[in-house]
Amino acid sequence: MKKxxxxxxxxxxxxxxxxxxxxMAFIITCCMMLFISIMTYTMDITLTSDNIQAAAKxxxxxxxxxxxxxxxxxxxxxxxxxxxxxxRITDAAENFMQxxxxxxxxxxxxxxxxxxxxxxxxxxxxMAEELSGTETLRTDFIxxxxxxxxxxxxxxQNYGTMLQQKDLPEDKRIEYAKAITDASRRLAxxxxxxxxxxxxENQQILLPSxxxxxxEQLCECLLGFEDIWERKNLEIETDIEDEVLITSDAEIMSxxxxxxxxxxIKFTDDGGTISLSLKTDKNIAIVKISDTGCGISPExxxxxFDKFYQGDTSHATQGNGLGLALVKRVIDITGSxxxxxxxxxxxxxxxxxxxxxxxxxxxKNTI
Length: 367
Hints:
Elements: H1 2-43, H2 49-97, H3 116-163, H4 170-201, E1 210-213, H5 214-223, H6 226-231, E2 235-240, E3 245-248, H7 250-266, E4 273-281, E5 284-291, H8 298-301, H9 323-333, E6 337-343, E7 347-355, H10 359-364
Helix pairs in contact: 1-2, 2-3, 3-4, 4-9, 5-7, 7-9
């Protein structure tokens, strides 16, 4: 293999030398003929055959030397400006293909600030950065899915085993059966949210847009949690502007409101307050859902829209860390905007801004 590579390089060098030889022979011959013609014409000099032969030999020697010099200079230039940069890039690409996602390429120092190799290297490094981040997310995703699946399965297995005990009291049987039901419901919700998020991220859902009353949808979603807020004795405050119409897909927008209401109620202590407001500003509908719950720290806030991220690292609270990831994905694909204001111990407020005339954009951005 090395002999073939060496032989190929020799052939390439000879080819370059021959090319330079022909180029130099043509240029120098033309220059010499022009020089001799002008000299003989202006100075009335008669050239003998000996003079011509000597000049031809000298010219041929110059052609050979200059061809060799150009070949060497071109070889050095190619090695440092083409071969070594290309090898650095290909070596990095091979390492990357073998799974080393931390591979990065050092920029090449050249006199040309717009060197194209540096542009390629910059693109490669940015691609490597994105792919390494994706690989990290994939690893975390698998770890979190495994954890979230194992927990309810372990609960169901343990309580199922206890249900097999003879002479089990009725109250214990009901308690264990309820625990199994709750765990299976949590598992079903997890799988459902994973499927929804997967469809949204892989562009497998069409967004049939229709115009509907946003206020009515918000009230319907909020009433779906009536049993929970009454059980926790929460105070509900609403300030909803009438006849706020938007053009969107009502089904996926309900994912946003249900998840935001669910979080607000879940993280608000008994006797707290949940507030809902709907206002308009020109062609923007502004929905604000706030609570008087535990609030969010800046560290948690920086990752709240990541898949499977939960501020409670023990996973003790109910949920699977997919709700806000779904919210963010829906917000992105509908061309809306979401912002969060929170303070530890005082509560959290989510503000969603929706374009009321985004029907045409939804058709263009269907996924």
